UniProtKB/TrEMBL annotation:
It is a multi-pass membrane protein. The keyword Membrane applies. This is Sodium:calcium antiporter. It comes from Photobacterium aquae. One of its GO terms (biological process) is intracellular calcium ion homeostasis. GO terms for molecular function: calcium channel activity; calcium, potassium:sodium antiporter activity. It comes from the Bacteria. PANTHER family: INNER MEMBRANE PROTEIN YRBG, SODIUM/POTASSIUM/CALCIUM EXCHANGER. The keyword Ribosomal protein does not apply.
């Protein structure tokens, strides 16, 4: 029964997020807010709505480990699984704005949350700081979006905000908001309760369930958006959606759910010593691979995807105390991680060599 409730919770959660984005986007259009701004704020926030609903529900239910684990697991999943799979489908070109601005912001915010949570607690003050940074970030995106909209018509933003095409009655948009919010709340309730029950049955901690089942389930909007964008050739959207959602997850989901709990958010030893460092390492992995050549290649995408499968296997092995866990760790430390490092180094060297030759050729001509 718990598994059926889990699936129903996912369906309600994703449907609610979709309704919320439709209502908010169409209302914004009716009030004359540019499509680029809607794409950067409403749509990005909407894909993080499931994580927000689940984490707030977890915080209010005094299951704060679930709240942190859901965000940590979602951010790891977004980068390694979603970007990896999208890049395997087709190499992802990355815009200068993402390289110079959005990826560094994501890495900095990830580092800040890691620093705040090193003692196993995101205090109310910490969460308040995250919410303030969220407001600053949103205003920054809004101002930047208005300026960009004034300069040119951004087709990527139009694609992202395609759900806003045409005008819809205000009452209909408000109805979408109400229905979407209701579905989100109901879905989050079902999801959290059924996930906790399943965790108890399997002997897994709430943190592990948050890192796996909840993280994957609440990231489904990002999966759909990025994969569809990749298939359609809208590669910048595929990357920007993940990077933007990760930043919103850290600032909005952790910040708001921590304030709702009234006591901040706590994480167990596994989250502090293992999963938060992995989330930080994954964020840093984006820097060299995205900065070089402004393309995430199929090889790099395969690497990302493989690292997520390794991480998932490690979590499952830990829960089951599997006999193959030690050999897996041996292979990871002695084979997979050195290969990852080699790919990063080769990518950096190749990029340096290409730039050197381009500079030499330009001087000749």
């Amino acid at each position: 029964m718990d598994y059926l409730l889990l699936i129903l919770g996912f369906v309600l959660l994703i449907s609610g997020a979709d309704g919320l984005v439709k209502g908010a986007s169409r209302l914004a259009t009716n009030f004359g807010i540019p499509s680029l701004v809607i794409g950067l704020t409403v749509v990005a926030f909407g894909t993080s709505a499931p994580e927000l609903a689940v984490s707030i529900n977890s915080a209010l239910s005094n299951k704060t480990e679930l709240a942190i684990a859901n965000v940590v697991g979602s951010n790891i999943f977004n980068v390694l699984f979603i970007l990896g799979l999208a890049a395997v489908i087709t190499p992802l070109s990355i815009s200068k704005q993402l390289i110079r601005q959005d990826v560094p912001i994501m890495v900095l915010v990830t580092g800040l949350v890691f620093y705040m949570a090193t003692d196993g607690l995101l205090s109310v003050w910490d969460c308040g700081i995250l919410v303030i940074l969220l407001l600053v970030y949103t205003v920054f995106l809004f101002v930047q979006g208005r300026q960009a909209e004034a300069r040119e018509n951004d087709t990527s933003a139009d694609e992202l905000a395609s759900i806003t095409t045409g005008r819809f009655p205000t009452w209909q948009n408000i109805l979408w908001l109400i229905v979407g919010f209701t579905f989100l709340v109901l879905g989050a309730n079902l999801l959290v309760e059924s996930a906790v029950n399943i965790a108890r049955q399997l002997g897994a901690s709430e943190a592990v369930i948050g890192l796996t089942i909840l993280a994957v389930g609440t990231s489904l909007p990002e999966v759909v958006t990025s994969i569809v964008a990749s298939v359609k050739g809208q590669r910048d959207i595929a990357v920007g959606n993940v990077v933007g959602s990760n930043t919103f997850n850290l600032l909005a989901v952790l910040g708001i759910s921590g304030l709702f709990s009234g006591q901040g958010l706590t994480g167990d030893v596994q989250l502090v010593e293992q999963d938060l460092p992995i989330m930080l390492a994954v964020a840093f992995l984006c820097l060299p691979l995205m900065f070089t050549g402004a393309v995430l290649s199929r090889l790099e995408g395969t690497l990302f995807f493989g690292l997520y499968l390794l991480y998932s296997a490690f979590l499952i092995g830990s829960v089951k105390a599997a006999s193959w866990l030690d050999p897996l760790l041996f292979v990871a430390w002695n084979v997979i991680f050195p290969i990852t490092l080699a790919v990063v180094v080769v990518t950096l060297l190749r990029d340096w060599w290409d730039k050197k030759h381009k500079k030499a050729n330009s001087q000749i001509h």
